[in-house]
Amino acid sequence: MIIYIHGFNSSSLSTKAQVLKQWLASRNRAQEWFSPDLPHRPAEAMATLIKLIESAQEPPKLVGSSLGGFYATHLVARFGLKAILVNPAVHPALLLRSLAGTTQQFWYGGGSYTFTQEHVDELEELDQLAPANPEKMLVMLENGDETLDWRDAAAYYRQSHQLIFQGGDHSFTRFQDVLELMDRF
Q: In this structure, is the dihedral angle defined by the CA atoms of residues 85, 88, 90 and 93, taken in order, positive or negative?
């Protein structure tokens, strides 16, 4: 089982989630792909992921993008799973604090919600001073990421396996090219 964990305001319809789904299907492994559409509240998102992991017949591998990488980091600490983190968010409560009180639009499927201080507080509760089980994480960064500073993730995950690519952007333009490597990790 591979659980793809989408980023902030995204869903299972994100490009990376769908590319991974199609890649697994092309190898007759479609049944391995799971990507829940997570609630916008971090505590509820984490509860959804924990329930999915606890119901799995075998330990899943996690693939987390952006905020999904932050969630995956928390789950690696809790369950000792392997995870691939794609341009992960580091300390997102600090990054998103300025959005408190703003209306946020979902990228897929429409809809909106108000991002509140409670969202920020829930993110702070999930944060870790340093990642637990860093050897169980493969961190993939593109230094052209216009949304997150790749150096923050490189420093935070310094004890994890890392691949840092020149150029690219927050969407991680090389995702298709690294699927085989991700699968082998």
A: negative
Helix (H) or strand (E) holding 165: strand 161-165
Quick check: 89 and 64 in contact, CB under 8 A? no
Rounded to a whole number of angstroms, the CA Rg of the chain reads: 15
Q: How far apart (Å, rounded) are the C-alpha atoms in residues 18 and 41?
A: 23
Instruction: In whole angstroms, give the CA distance from residue 100 to residue 120.
Output: 8
Q: What's phi and psi for 95, nearest 5 deg?
A: -70, -35
Per-residue pLDDT for 93 more than 90?
Answer: yes
Q: Which of 82, 78, 56 is nearest to 160 (CA)?
A: 82
Mean pLDDT of 42-65: 97
Domain CATH code at residue 153: 3.40.50.1820
Mean pLDDT in residue range 125-137: 97
- Measuring CA to CA, which residue among 47, 80, 74, 38 is closest to residue 61? 80
pTM summary value: 0.96
Domain that holds residue 165: 2-184
The number of domains in the chain is 1
Contact of 3 with 61, CB cutoff 8 Å: yes
| 165 touches 175 (CB < 8 A) | no
Q: Which pLDDT score is estimated for 88?
A: 98
